[in-house]
Design goal:
It is a single chain. The chain has 203 residues and is α/β, with parallel strands linked by helices. Helices cover 32% and strands 22% of the residues. It has six helices and twelve strands. It has an eight-stranded mixed sheet, with helices on both faces. β6 and β7 form a beta hairpin. α2 packs across α4. The longest helix has 15 residues. The chain is globular. The two termini are 31 Å apart. The relative contact order is 0.19.
């Protein structure tokens, strides 16, 4: 499915989190996905590891016409929508799921032809498709040394300047899991549900 479209499919994980990467291997086998792991850098803090690892993925894939970057808690759903995404491939960046709740100061997304919404802000990095121009842009412009969270940088400095979209219903969510980034168990399912419901209200 995805392998026939994307030049590369990368999943970010950590060697020490066998529970997470084996969970993703099972998910990939379930949908017949071929991918490569990118093992996160071991750094002084989880935030640094997160930021530098995402940036390195982009740096290492400059020249690809398209790239799908996943995180090891990604779980797929509603994959029948992928046919629409391939036909309507005018996007630069495609979120397979996003935290797009109406936070203060966030521009309102625009409803395009179903199932697409153009988004100008939003968070999460568990499943994002990039066209080649976006891979190069991120590699050239994101500065992980600032420790600005990668998804915050995308939300505040990138999405509104490019063709940035998400499908509803979402094609990927995050499995509840212990997060080393936040040092606690996290469950974003309700956040994704709330974001979907919010997007559905936009006419």
């Amino acid at each position: 499915m995805f392998n026939s479209y994307f030049d590369k499919v990368i999943c970010l994980s950590q060697h020490k989190r066998k529970d997470r990467w084996t969970g993703f291997e099972k998910e990939a086998a379930r949908i017949g996905l071929d991918f490569d792991f990118f093992w996160a850098f071991e750094m002084d803090s989880p935030i640094e590891s997160f930021c530098y690892s995402h940036h390195a993925i982009m740096q290492q894939n400059i020249g690809a016409e398209s790239l799908l970057v996943l995180e090891d808690d990604c779980r797929f759903q509603n994959l029948e929508l992928w046919d629409e995404c391939q036909v309507n491939d005018w996007w630069d960046i495609l979120y397979f799921g996003i935290n797009a709740k109406p936070y203060l100061g966030h521009p309102t997304p625009t409803r395009i032809d179903p199932p697409f919404f153009q988004v100008y802000s939003g968070y999460t990095t568990h499943a994002i498709g990039y066209k080649g121009n976006m891979v190069e842009f991120v590699a050239d412009h994101y500065r992980p040394e600032t420790k600005e969270m990668y998804d915050h940088w995308l939300s505040t400095k990138v999405l509104k300047y490019f063709e940035s979209y998400v499908c509803v219903p979402f094609m990927a969510v995050q499995a509840p899991v212990h997060s080393d980034l936040w040092n606690r168990s996290v469950d974003y399912i309700d956040t994704f549900k709330a974001s979907e419901e919010y997007l559905k209200t936009i006419q």
